[in-house]
Specification:
This protein is α/β, with parallel strands linked by helices. The protein has helices at about 45-55, 80-90, 95-110, 125-140, 180-195, 220-240; strands spanning about 10, 10-15, 15-20, 20-25, 30-35, 60-65, 115-125, 145-150, 170-175, 200-205. It has one domain (about 10-240): Rossmann fold (3-Layer(aba) Sandwich). α3 (about 95-110) packs across α4. It comes from Pedococcus dokdonensis.
Length: about 240
């Protein structure tokens, strides 16, 4: 995973203020766009690194700071940081976060560096948020061109929105996830594939929740590598540079 250090600020205007957001540009300076949504720990070095990885692939990447209304705090990804992360998550106004995400999608489409389609990608909290944003934006006729959701933690409560998500989508889940049991993973799979013929659903044996996060608390090296290879190949097909 790349350690991305060069990003520019690109606040997203919303009715009650500005969502802080960072833009990562590819070497070419232009390309298709991806809005990248954070985990519950905030916009950490891990999320910035993945933004850099996507930029290295040729995408213009926008990373909104979803926690801006509750302090935009970055929390340790070690085990002792999880209670604080859950506390912050509990303060998030979900509907406002979805609205911010829709605004971020629109803002990225309007960014002068974006040349081509625009997709969404999210991890954990961000995976569920990306799914909800895709549904709401599609209802307004401005849905994303692609959606990637890694172990979207809110998905079990969002399955009623599945018929609204009409973009090609890729979902990753671990089969040893303490937060999303296998039976629930299969319910998610059934719901997201019921009304969309262009869904790729990948499960990873032995992988727990947040398996792509490099923290030793979560990381599963094999699943992380396998999922990222699948993601980059899928993006190349569905959101070509």
């Amino acid at each position: 995973m790349t350690t991305a250090s060069s990003a520019s600020s690109h606040p997203v205007h919303v009715p009650d203020g500005e969502v802080p957001a960072d833009v990562y540009l590819p070497a070419s300076g232009t390309g298709p766009g991806i809005v990248l949504f954070q985990e519950i720990f905030g916009v950490t070095d891990y999320i910035r690194g993945r933004a850099g990885d996507l930029a290295d692939l040729g995408y213009v990447v926008l990373v909104p700071h979803v926690y801006w209304r509750v302090g935009d705090e970055v929390v340790s990804e070690a085990a002792d940081g999880l209670p604080r992360a859950m506390e912050l998550l509990g303060k998030v106004d979900w509907e406002a976060a979805v609205s911010d995400g829709v605004a971020a999608l629109s803002a990225l489409r309007d960014h002068p560096a974006v040349d081509g389609p625009v997709g969404l990608l999210g991890f954990c909290f961000g995976g569920g948020l990306a799914f909800n944003v895709a549904a709401v934006a599609a209802t307004a006729g401005a849905g994303p061109d692609a959606l990637v959701s890694y172990y979207g933690s809110a998905l079990p409560t969002l399955l009623g929105l599945a018929p609204q998500v009409d973009a090609p989508s890729l979902h990753h889940f671990g089969l040893d996830d303490d937060y999303i049991p296998v039976d629930t993973v299969r319910e998610i799979e059934a719901a997201v594939t019921a009304t969309n013929d262009d869904v790729t659903f990948v499960t990873h044996e032995g992988a727990g929740h947040a398996f792509d996060n490099p923290s030793p608390v979560f990381h599963h090296a094999g699943a992380s590598q396998e999922a990222w290879a699948a993601t980059t190949a899928w993006l190349a097909a569905k959101l070509p540079v």
